[in-house]
Amino acid sequence: MSDVAKMKEAAFPAPTVEEWEREAEKSLKGKPLERLVSMTYENIAVKPLYTRRDVEALGPLEQYPGFGRYVRGARPEGYRGEPWKVSQEISAASPSDWNEAVKHDLERGQTEIHLALGRLPFAVESVDDVAAMLDGVPLDRYSLRVDAGARSLSFLALLAAYLEERGVPLSSVRGAIGMDPLGAWAEQGTLPCSLERLYDEMAEATKWAKEQMPAVRTILVRGEPYHNGGANAVQELAFSLAAAVEYIRAGLDRGLTVDDIATRMQVSLAVGADFFMEIAKLRAARRLFAQVIEAFGGGESARRIELHVRTSPFTKTVYDPYVNMLRAAAEAFAAVVGGADGVHVSPFDEALGLADEFSRRIARNTQLILLEEAHVANVIDPAGGSYYVETLTAKLAEEAWKLFQRVEEKDGMAKALEDGFVQTEVEAVAKRRLDRVKTRKEKIVGTNVYANLEETPVEKPKQDAANVAPPLDEKRVADIRASLAGGKWMEAAIRAVRRRATAREIAAALVDGNAVVAITPIRAWRLAEPFEQLRKAAEEHAERTGSRLSVHLINIGPLVRHQARADFIAGLFAAGGVAAERSDGFASVAEAVEWVRNTNGTHYIVCGADDDYPAFVPALAEAFKQAKPNAKLYVAGKPPEELERTYADAGVDGSIHLGSNAYDVIVAFLTERGVALDGEVR
């Protein structure tokens, strides 16, 4: 038999888990295997290795997409029949600019028209505004997704009147024109009118759409308000699920069926940086929503929830913003692998202001590359059967269900928000995230690690203030209110729009006399903000004084002995906009002190190897304090306790090491240098 034939017949022996564990423990040099287990923000322990045993412990898995509770996808054919919607949210400075942008992007690969009324820099007040935005936009060829915020009835009336004027059948519109009052309440802390009245509007819009726009969803359930406040995946799922249950109950109380409600509901979730966690989150979301709708008696089609997914603004940065392209690409990949029905990819300059044509193109093409070049749509549920993803999906669903039940015990999502339960839960996780960012255990490339002090900032044009809305016509408001009294709110609102009523006037007419409860909002923030604030303060100080702040590094010995710690210190201070002035490697204390005398620094850090410190640092500290009594001296690295005392006695002011809180170190330095800080970002 030839050698090639023997090779073809050969097989590698399959090691057992026990054999792997023994080898892994050897690599750990006696440390326990548990050291490889990590805890997520969801308090889920992630093992270093998953095997068939893990999925066998879960019980029978769903074998095919499009069945059961749709963990593996809502459609049996996955994306092979129809790819996900390239649903980039478009914003622009004016209705005419928005019109140009949407037509431009639709011609270049976008497949859904997407806007969020509350994030536009202008108000959509009249049918003329709608006409300016949609003139020449082929609504018959593309679905439309409108996030209307707390209420949607006024915008629906504007759109319906516009379509009637253009002779476009209402039934030809498809997509989602939805409201999410609980999400808006969580974000803003207040509502335009009572929650009960908003539920009335939701029911009226849903009943009208069922007859006039049957392919349009009118109820949004957004997880972003919780995600953008720092919530973990369990919380985003649980609170979204609790909001959906609240909407189902409100709709049932107002004469809708569970199928009416569920088939007109769209769930919108954010996808962050934890790749596998986010894939599992989307899979768990389908399972949980199917479970709830089934419990309400919903039919099979009603249990098939539609998932819109946005890459996370929470993970994006102001500094080194081009890295945001890579972040968004990884997040978009997770969204698609997780089975999103529509995806919005954040433009890389999202944190800086309105996206321009270039940043919109990069974001849109991120999706098109996944579709056309990476061929992700060719495989149905690529994560299905993965020992890790299946285990994580099950664990996420289990933990989210537990938290959802806690919300139910508090009489539902509205009461949980009113009592502050949701805010407290999110804030606890947000604090953990913030602490890890400040200590750089949570790394943000280009911000708290690998900051580039020489980068050229992305310039964004200043945005003009939004037009001031004209005062309400109180007589028209009264007339609209009188017409609403007969029921059929949508028809009455459309008639009012035909008489050129504005969205604000319709909304004012719908306000009831019930009190609006104010709650503590969940503040949206970004992980990078703490260090961005410090760096901005340092840059403003440099502009005022004409020079950038710096620390001075006293390097000991040859490059190989001091470079690692010198790079560490330089990287740490760069995160706060502070440069590092490095010395050559000194062989003697006298050389080092002479260099110190010839520099104009205020903060010096000794960088070298541990073995070099005992003989060098005490003598240097004594001479340093004589040469520069008002300057501060630190050592890079954490000395043993006894040496730390010796160094302190000699005049060393402290140490900076891997365990230091980098944020606090930079704040102390900036404060001592007289830099004005606005305080904590949270």
TrEMBL record:
The keyword Lyase does not apply. InterPro entries: Cbl-dep_enz_cat (IPR016176), Cobalamin-bd_sf (IPR036724), MeMalonylCoA_mutase_a/b_cat (IPR006099), MeMalonylCoA_mutase_a/b_site (IPR058549), MMCoA_mutase_a_cat (IPR006098). Its EC number is 5.4.99.2. One of its GO terms (biological process) is propionate metabolic process, methylmalonyl pathway. Transmembrane segments: none annotated. Residues 40-117, 118-510 form the Methylmalonyl-CoA mutase alpha/beta chain catalytic domain. Its cofactor is adenosylcob(III)alamin. One of its GO terms (molecular function) is cobalamin binding. Keywords: Cobalamin, Cobalt, Isomerase. It is an enzyme of class 5 (isomerase). Belongs to the methylmalonyl-CoA mutase family. This is methylmalonyl-CoA mutase. It comes from Geobacillus thermopakistaniensis (strain MAS1).
